[in-house]
Amino acid sequence: MVGALSAAIGIRDTAAGRAGAHRGAPSVEMPLTTLTEIAASFDDGRNDIYCLYGQRQGVARDRILVDSVKTITSVSDCGGIGVGFVTRIADPVLLTYMLRGLMTSLPKLSLVSAFYQAENVERGGKTIRVARALSVVRGPSIITAAGSS
Length: 149
Fold this sequence. Notes:
Oligomer: single chain
CATH topology: Cytidine Deaminase, domain 2
Number of strands: 9
Shape: globular
Structural class: alpha/beta
Radius of gyration: 14 Å
């Protein structure tokens, strides 16, 4: 089953350690630099598509740690764990249906994220602009059943 994660993607950086993971629920973590670069893309009015690279972790394999991203021109160009895209649509119900549709039609992916807003957060006494996303994470039992990792 595909599960929705409708919180901000957790920010991962070496200074602050891991933050934002929801224990017992699917979670996604991305490096702070990635989220600031996507926020700049959003603020510049670009509508980029990203291939997300990383791995599943945790006993239940319910955490996805994204370690790098690459801008792509088509979802078919992605060989990573998932895809993300910038959108100006912020309706969570509509986005969830759209993301679930993408997940259903792209069975090789474990993660689909829509970056729908840029916002300021405080980190280490500084204000940093980061992207906020709604993500859909494929359940690990389906990944295992499909023979993927």
